[in-house]
Design goal:
By secondary structure, the protein is of the alpha+beta class. The protein is 37% helix and 23% strand. The chain has one domain (5-172): Jelly Rolls.
Amino acid sequence: MNISWSKAFGYRRQKDKGKLGIRDILINISIFEDLNKREIASVQRILHQREYEPDEVIFRQEEPGMGMYIIHSGTVTIISEPEGLLLSELSDGDFFGEIALLDEFPRSATAIAKTGCRVFGFFQPDLLGLIEHDPRLGMKIVLRLARIIAARLRNANEQAFILNRELQEIKAGTKGMSK
């Protein structure tokens, strides 16, 4: 299955992205793209900065999700365990784990720092606090997040349909014979 991860993760790439500050990164992340300068500053104030060493686990598959991560610098690999199947490799300006902003369902993959990384965490309690103190801003973020997840679901459904059709063709012995 070939998925455009930069599209799936909602980041609008820019040149020299490694030189961007966290504010510049935030305004280029689709979850925050509709926010004004004041709203971006509000989000920026509640982010949690952390640095990871190469090969350090950021979170493991099956752990409860607590929030999303935004990569300021470095590279993170997303793998499916126990097979160690590489699902994605993300870098400066990309984000991951955002579904955990909505629920604490166990993580579906493991995130590992491939290089030294500086990341910012945006966690569910922070989002809930934001909703309490600035409901309009909180709802803008939640609505945008819901739209991103809906688009991914539509894409996943389309991919499942294609794979199912190919499987049915293989079973019928007609793969490659149609056209």
